[in-house]
Amino acid sequence: MKQHPKMEVMCHVHNCKFNETDYCFAPKLEVNAKGNADMANSSDEALCTTFQSK
Predict the structure, then answer these.
(1) 10-38 pLDDT, tens per residue?
(2) How many CB atoms lie within 10 A of CB 40?
(3) Positive or negative, the Cα torsion across 8, 13, 19, 21?
(4) What's the pTM value of the predicted model, to 2 decimals?
(5) 31 is a domain residue
(6) Quick count: other Cβ atoms within 10 Å of Cβ 11?
(7) How many CA atoms lie within 13 A of 28 on its CB side?
(8) At 43, phi and psi to the nearest 5?
(9) 36 lies in a domain?
């Protein structure tokens, strides 16, 4: 079985509860397209749905 990727994820949203010294420490990361579409054409059309405010 293929394992999930492991990588460092930078985060500059300082009021996210998973942000520690500009790195994301969430147990998992979920990114979705904005709106009803399942596609994004730029980073402006994508959002981190893992975000939780402190």
Answers:
(1) 999 999 999 999 999 999 999 999 987 89
(2) 15
(3) positive
(4) 0.80
(5) yes
(6) 19
(7) 4
(8) -65, -25
(9) yes
